[in-house]
Amino acid sequence: MLNDPLFIIAAIACLGVLVILILGIGTFGKGGEGSAKRSNKLMQYRIYAQALAVALILLFVWMRKMGA
User: Fold this and answer.
1) Structurally, how many domains does the chain consist of?
2) Would you say residue 25 lies in a domain?
3) How far from 45 is each of 7, 16, 39, 40, 48, CA to CA, in Å?
4) What is the pTM of this model?
5) CA 58, CA 12: separation in Å to the nearest integer?
6) Dihedral over Cα of 55, 56, 61, 66: its sign
7) Is residue 53 within 8 Å of residue 15, measured between CB atoms?
8) Is residue 45 part of a domain?
9) Residue 32 gets which letter from DSSP?
10) What is the pLDDT along the chain (68 residues), one digit of tens a residue?
């Protein structure tokens, strides 16, 4: 399972979501109007990255179930 390229890609996508989340929370914590706008934009990117990560995980599970 750890040698499966799709698993590795899904894991990297999950780590990307985590990085974006940490950056967004860190930016929000600084305060100020500019930081709030940047934090909001990062959280929007997080939603897109999270949707991609979930899709990759579902694809991985489906392919494992099919025996690929």
Assistant:
1) 1
2) yes
3) 22, 10, 10, 9, 5
4) 0.84
5) 15
6) positive
7) no
8) yes
9) S
10) 778 899 999 999 999 999 999 999 999 888 888 888 899 999 999 999 999 999 999 999 999 998 86
